[in-house]
Design brief:
This protein is of the alpha+beta class. It has helices at about 1-10, 15-20, 65-75, 95, 125-135, 140-175, 185-195, 195-245, 265-310, 325-370, 375-395, 420-440, 460-475, 490-495, 515-525, and strands spanning about 25-30, 35-40, 45-50, 55-60, 80, 90, 100, 250-255, 260, 315-320, 325, 450, 480-485.
């Protein structure tokens, strides 16, 4: 039941193959303050209904727009960088619910691990913990987004400046070098002295230079992509060899976080599929370079044709400052002078924009550093330790070595010592500490605290009593606790204040309820 609640909200709890084979549809109603919402889910399709405002939103997947809308409702302003683009985006709902759910299979051995498919972002745990306990604020992510956009602008300015430098290289490579130059201020005077057809040739020549510069720049950029794509193909090939030859089992345990990754035939085949896709992309890039090379060759042929036309009338001369200049030299001088003057002006403008962008980036970085002082961080860490120690005492935990634990980020150190039953209570103490800190300083809506089977590792009767007593006496009255457990006399104090849902052999799927549930789905046009 607990897993289906989270699945309905867009998370990926561990569901067994039998349940997945049922291909269920769910409809969940919940409220935030006085606003009532309903969420329908089937596979990855999500429908969110705002009951108060009679609005309905449909989404083809959990991530993206649905995550943004739900985050707005629950005031969860946490952001993570996309692995490919590095743009900040709203992560799926699982990241919001992590501190509110202790899963029976995954969380009692390692916190922040209640759901599957959390590795789509890199190094997310540190920032999420900091956000939940108040070490970073909403403004932090606003600055991060501003920094991302400004850095992209800066990269664009730098790319255009590089393109201009490439243009000058093209001028040097394709324009014949002459021993004179033409001042831009007298270009118009000389142009009037030149026949109309030669002016046209000069314009054609300038257009060809521009096109060549653009093509050379484009080729440079695509060649860079070619190098990246080649490395990706090689990495996929190494991954497949490693998965087949170095890992005989069907799973792999991460040595850093302890997460289990599948290494089945399907997973290995997926590596080959990714490799084929990468190779196809590599071939597309090579084809794109070939097309650009052909375009460059075409422009060079056009340039030669223009020069041949100029040579046909090269017998004419003009006088400039008592110097005899051929029409060919004059045309080249006009083309080079005009183009160089315009791109120089553009480069000056871009350099100013780049400088301004760097100043803004520096200011944003400075503001981000100043968002929280060292004293503020120390205050939050001290608060964590005080609350954590209080829960350790309430849950009768004595053997944990606190000398290595300085902040909420040290969660991997909290279960290294003591027996298995005591480790379980230590993890519960950690979760309750994070939950209390979110209640005290968090800006997000407080979700129900869902604890799946706290009687792990056969807790002694007295310690089980302490668990129940701690939950009853230390969670604010307005907050909800969903406690999943087998019937036990030690739960009587909890039962006296709780709504109880008993699951029999049919569990959630009761045949006698089918018609009633079907009518509800039909009323909402969800069948």
């Amino acid at each position: 039941m607990a897993k289906v609640l989270f699945w309905s909200l867009g998370c990926d709890p561990v569901l067994d193959a039998t349940w997945k084979s049922f291909d269920c549809k769910t409809l969940l109603e919940f409220s935030v303050d006085k606003n009532i919402y309903q969420i329908f889910r089937h596979k990855n399709e999500i429908v969110l209904i705002d009951v108060n405002n009679n609005q309905r939103y449909s989404f083809p997947k959990v991530s993206g727009e649905f995550s943004k809308l739900l985050s707005t409702i629950i005031n969860f302003n946490f952001k993570l960088p996309n692995r490919k683009t590095e743009a900040l985006e709203t992560p799926p709902p699982a990241y919001y619910f992590l501190p509110f759910y202790i899963d029976q299979r995954r969380s009692w051995s390692l916190p922040w691990n209640s759901f599957e498919n959390l590795d789509q972002y890199a190094n997310w745990k540190q920032d999420l913990i900091k956000y939940d306990v108040g070490l970073i604020s909403d403004r932090y992510f606003e600055i991060q987004e501003e920094l991302f956009l400004e850095r992209r602008k800066n990269e664009n300015y730098r790319s255009q400046i590089t393109s201009i430098d490439t243009t000058f290289n093209v001028l040097r490579d394709y324009l014949p070098q002459k021993n004179f130059s033409i001042d831009p201020n007298v270009v118009e005077q000389i142009t009037k002295e030149i026949e109309v057809e030669l002016v046209t040739l000069a314009q054609n020549q300038e257009e060809i230079y521009n096109t060549l510069a653009q093509l050379e720049t484009e080729k440079t950029q695509i060649s860079h992509q070619l190098n990246i794509a080649s490395k990706i193909v090689l990495e996929y090939e190494k991954d497949y060899v490693f998965a087949v030859e170095n890992i005989p089992e069907d799973y792999l345990e991460c040595p850093l976080c302890g997460q289990i990754h599948e290494n089945s035939i399907i997973n290995r085949a997926s590596i080959l599929t990714d490799k084929v896709n990468a190779e196809n992309q590599l071939n597309e890039i090579k084809q794109a370079i070939s097309i650009i090379d052909e375009k460059i060759s075409t422009q060079k042929r056009k340039l030669n044709a223009v020069r041949d036309s100029i040579n046909l009338i090269n017998s004419k001369y003009i006088k400039y400052k008592n110097e005899t200049i051929s029409y060919s030299d004059a045309i080249n001088g006009i083309a080079e002078s005009s183009l160089r003057f315009r791109v120089n002006e553009k480069k000056k403008e871009l350099l100013l924009q780049e400088k301004g962008s760097k100043v803004l980036i520096k200011d944003l970085e400075s503001e981000k550093r100043q968002l929280q002082s060292k004293e503020d961080k120390e205050t939050i860490n001290i608060s964590f330790l005080e609350i954590f120690k209080r829960y350790l005492k309430l849950l009768n935990i004595n053997s944990i070595n606190m000398s290595e634990i300085e902040s909420p980020l040290d969660f991997t150190k909290i279960y290294k010592e003591g027996g298995a039953a005591e480790n379980t209570r230590t993890i519960l103490a950690y979760y309750l500490t994070i939950y209390e800190m979110i209640c005290n300083t968090g800006t997000q809506v407080i979700a129900p605290l869902v604890i799946d089977t706290p009687n792990q590792q056969e807790q002694s009767e007295s310690n089980y009593d302490k668990i129940v007593e701690t939950l009853l006496n230390n969670i604010p009255e307005n907050n909800q606790i969903f406690l999943c457990a087998m019937e036990n006399n030690h739960l009587k104090p909890f039962e006296s204040q709780a709504s109880i849902f008993n699951l029999d052999g049919d569990k959630l799927l009761k045949e006698t309820m089918f018609k009633e549930v079907e009518s509800i789905f039909k009323n909402y046009n969800l069948l």
